[in-house]
Description:
By secondary structure, the chain is mostly helical. Helix content is 73%, strand content 0%. It has helices at 4-12, 19-37, 41-55, 62-66, 70-84.
Amino acid sequence: MLSDDELVEQILLGNENVAEELIKRYYTSILRYCRWHCSNLEKAEDLTQETFLRMDSMYFFWPSVFGLTGLPFEVMQMQSAVICGS
């Protein structure tokens, strides 16, 4: 199994198929965190989806700015006010 660093490296090299593995690793945690920010489950699910969509354009900055596990949560926080009103 590849580490997060290795998965991001593969994504940066153009291997988009490995993004699915990152989603599998973080989906439950991100959804749980989004649910804490949104009282509505449907909005929390929308926020979770939006988080992963927005992450796609931010992989380049992953290790240097956000740390290995921080990027999904940083992206989610940026989107929470728009989707959840928080």
